[in-house]
Amino acid sequence: MALTTKQRQFVTEYLVDLNATQAAIRAGYSTRRAKDYAYQLMQRDDVKDEIEAAMAERSKRTEITKDMVLARYWMIATADPNELAVHRRVCCRHCFGRGHAYQWDDEAEFDEATARAMKTKGASLPTDDGGYGFDKTLRPHPKCPKCKGEGHGDVYWGDTRDASPAAKALYARTKKTKDGFEIVTHDQLAALGMVARHLGMLVDKGGDLDEELKRLEIEKRKAEIKKLTEGDGDALMPQRVEVVVKDARVRDADA
Q1: What is the model's pTM?
Q2: pLDDT of 144-156, one tens digit each?
Q3: Is 97 left (phi over 0), alpha (psi -120 to 50) or beta?
């Protein structure tokens, strides 16, 4: 049986955001009963076949294949987050100073510290016994008597322009915060789950359409239970309420 004009419009609208309820509303079905209409439409084999065909046609038209989508998910799932941000343990000032004495960046830093001390009453003048050339990126010295080989924590933010293709796929955006900024990434576990689903490693016979049906069923049941309990003062009492929901076919608005 051929789809009606409104049903075909529903298929077209569904491809916009894969939201069956909103697609039903945009297709002209009753807003009040959009969830019910969406649920019934998504259960029809002819509607599901039309959606699958439309998706296949869109893939052909845009030249975006399932293999391309799968490859993108795999890049996100396996990207190394350390390319974007790294938490590392770095050395303290005493780790590599001569005799583990305080080590300076250079003579200029030492001279500035000396000048500040001379202007401060009662301050002790610094010494350069530890020498110069402090490199804050080095790992802690395991036998440093000052930090006991632990150094201190340091966060290094990578330059996203230099990231690998996989890391760029993982990177979502940079968000400003009150303390500076934060690198936001895509969910790697979610991406890995999508890869597993594409390869049939997860039990999901209906794919996206099946998930949409489950969501609509839950929404439909919640709405029916709400109707049964609204306005009933006894529903607020601590008692057991048994609700039986019967399958109700929704008549197509075109009928």
Answers
A1: 0.53
A2: 999 999 999 999 9
A3: beta
Q: Which residues contact 228 (CB under 8 A, 6 or more apart)?
A: 243
- Structure-block tokens of residue 47: 């509607």
What SS3 state is found at 39?
A: helix
Q: What is the mean pLDDT of residues 158-185?
A: 91
| Domains of the chain, earliest start first | 1-64+203-227+244-255 (1.10.10.1400), 65-84+159-201 (no CATH), 89-157 (no CATH)
Question: 3-state class of 157 per DSSP?
Answer: strand
pLDDT of res. 83: 94
pLDDT of 222: 76
Strands 180-185 and 171-177: antiparallel
**Which residues is 157 bridged to in the sheet?**
85
Q: What is the pLDDT of residue 237?
A: 39
Exposure string over 216-252, b if 16+ CB within 10 A, otherwise e: beebbeeeeeeeeeeeeeeeeeeeeeeeeeeeeebee
